[in-house]
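Attaching the record inline, Q. Sequence:
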Amino acid sequence: MRPDDWHLTEDLDCFLARAEDFLHSRPVLHTLPLTVTETLRIRGLDAYGTEAPTFGWLEWAGEVRAAFFRTPPHRLHLTLLTLEEADTLAAHLAGLGRPLPGVSADHDTATAFAEAWQRHSGATPTLHARQRLYRLGTLTPPEPLPEGRARVASERDREQLMLWYREFAAAIGELASADADSWADTRIAYRRVTFWETPDGIPVSMAGVGPMVAGQIRVAPVYTPAHLRGRGYAGAATVEVSQAALATGAAHVLLFADLTNPTSNGLYQRLGYRPVTDFAVHDFEYPT
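Structure, as predicted:
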């Protein structure tokens, strides 16, 4: 396999024309590229930042074998790669002189690419996060639910959504994927965030969902302010959006959880979510 078997483009339509069938062939494992490309298609190529996104695919004997995307300033995201494929991609990108801030992928792919990138670019990889992808089996609501009720966030909740979006991004140590105001506006417009609120109408937790693409919907983000945790609010909100996703006809309801957080992993499994595979996120540091 040669580095020139990899194809790069900044044209989303070109990328989807070649790689869309491949992405749809494994919608659960490809949830991130499916939802990111759908967001870019609907909201424009500046949905995640001002710099143009980059897309790519590996074509071998006329068949697409793998794909990747990057929405600067965020990390490169890869689908499943072999060791050889990871090495040829790292060599190809390094040869183009395109520095990368990091990589995210399934655990083995991310590890292989991080090691290959170090060889070809001289960057030092550091493990940033370990995540587990879950798929909903049989939804099992907690008993009893906390006092209160679920409510879809509306325009009057805009400031609350913006605040919690910033807090959520800070809590997981990630760059916000969009401006807080545009993120809130989009979620309100498409009714994609649900609050759990107390009996007197005070929001105490939120759970969001992405669009349905290729029969899958991913739950994200799930956030409860630190001083309100441990009371069942996140579980109640997650149940509500999970039920709503099933009601829309989703074949797969998915979510990611930080593997360093046993509380959230335990909660999701009690609600009926089952592990699919583990992902890893690496950051790259370059010699000065």
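The longest strand covers residues 124-136. The radius of gyration is 19 Å.

More tomorrow.
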